[in-house]
UniProtKB/TrEMBL annotation:
<comment type="similarity">
    <text>Belongs to the HIBADH-related family.</text>
</comment>
<dbReference type="GO" id="GO:0051287">
    <property type="term" value="F:NAD binding"/>
</dbReference>
<dbReference type="InterPro" id="IPR015815">
    <property type="entry name" value="HIBADH-related"/>
</dbReference>
<dbReference type="InterPro" id="IPR029154">
    <property type="entry name" value="HIBADH-like_NADP-bd"/>
</dbReference>
<dbReference type="Pfam" id="PF14833">
    <property type="entry name" value="NAD_binding_11"/>
</dbReference>
<protein>
    <recommendedName>
        <fullName>3-hydroxyisobutyrate dehydrogenase</fullName>
        <ecNumber>1.1.1.31</ecNumber>
    </recommendedName>
</protein>
<dbReference type="InterPro" id="IPR006115">
    <property type="entry name" value="6PGDH_NADP-bd"/>
</dbReference>
<dbReference type="InterPro" id="IPR036291">
    <property type="entry name" value="NAD(P)-bd_dom_sf"/>
</dbReference>
<keyword id="KW-0520">NAD</keyword>
<dbReference type="GO" id="GO:0050661">
    <property type="term" value="F:NADP binding"/>
</dbReference>
<dbReference type="InterPro" id="IPR002204">
    <property type="entry name" value="3-OH-isobutyrate_DH-rel_CS"/>
</dbReference>
<dbReference type="InterPro" id="IPR011548">
    <property type="entry name" value="HIBADH"/>
</dbReference>
<feature type="domain" description="6-phosphogluconate dehydrogenase NADP-binding">
    <location>
        <begin position="2"/>
        <end position="161"/>
    </location>
</feature>
<dbReference type="Pfam" id="PF03446">
    <property type="entry name" value="NAD_binding_2"/>
</dbReference>
<keyword id="KW-0101">Branched-chain amino acid catabolism</keyword>
<keyword id="KW-0560">Oxidoreductase</keyword>
<dbReference type="InterPro" id="IPR008927">
    <property type="entry name" value="6-PGluconate_DH-like_C_sf"/>
</dbReference>
Amino acid sequence: MNIAFIGLGNMGGKMAQNLLKAGHTVYGFDLSPTAIQEFQTAGGVVSTNPQDAAKHADVVITMLPAAKHVKDVYLGDTGILAVLPEGGLCIDSSTIDPQTIKDIAEVGKSKNIQVCDAPVSGGTVGAQAGTLTFMVGTDEDTFNKAKNILSHMGKNIVHCGDVGAGQIAKICNNLILGISMVAVAEGMALGAKLGIDPEALAGVVNSSSGRCWSSDVCNPWPNISENAPASRGYQGGFATQLMLKDLGLAIEAAGQVKQPILLGGLVQQLYQQRCLQGHAQLDFSSIIQNYLPDEA
Ligand code: NAD
């Protein structure tokens, strides 16, 4: 299959490599020369703009930082919807607000082009290993077409509902994650301050009712969870600034339907403070340093 891939960064670069490994021809575009270089070395065909990539393609995949980049790539001066033939399929895997992808899908529909959302969970490790979870928003037929391609990059491809439903699932999951990480950080920091060995505390929590992904797989206390960012100086995980972005999306979406998300608002401020303190690139579990800066 001929696939256009726009956005070859930390996630997209690795996802595109898995498509190349599966034998597809991939036409790639990114604004970053480093990302382009890595893609070319892996066997990708470099394009000069999104339209140049899309005009060769049966399917377009986008993996971009935020909604403004996604809008630009689909609808801007060199936007792909202007050149993709009728019957084309576009899959946006960026994490953005549900309304933006619905708006873009409407434009696509008027040209007989299917646009769906398929944000991911699994991070850069999952992107490299081809084990991502995709949360897909679209109709049944488009889902089945998209699933064939996404299965080269992920192992769980979940149909969440109509366009936008994938983004809803993604931002609600990350709302829970952002809150649960702060809860675990508070519990671990309090325990340490009160004098319990953090390893003993984590052992109890992980076999008790406080257990969650943040306590078990990604405990914020160093050297509790094997392979957790906390055990390597909070490097190479899910950046605090990306968690801040996702909580902002949850707050924006909650505002649109007037739904209170009280803890979401509070932890968003905590991650915002971390970013202002210069820790935007560290894994979000480094939030524990605000509770016990000398120990964690
Ligand atoms: P990234 O910043 O590493 O990559 C984004 C790439 O898009 C960059 O290489 C950038 O140059 C390129 N880009 C920006 N504007 C462009 C344009 N107009 N045309 C072409 N390329 C353009 O980000 P990432 O970590 O790969 O994340 C991408 C998306 O995936 C984000 O929405 C993020 O929230 C989401 N996500 C990231 C992770 C993670 O662990 N990194 C996990 C799940 C979801």
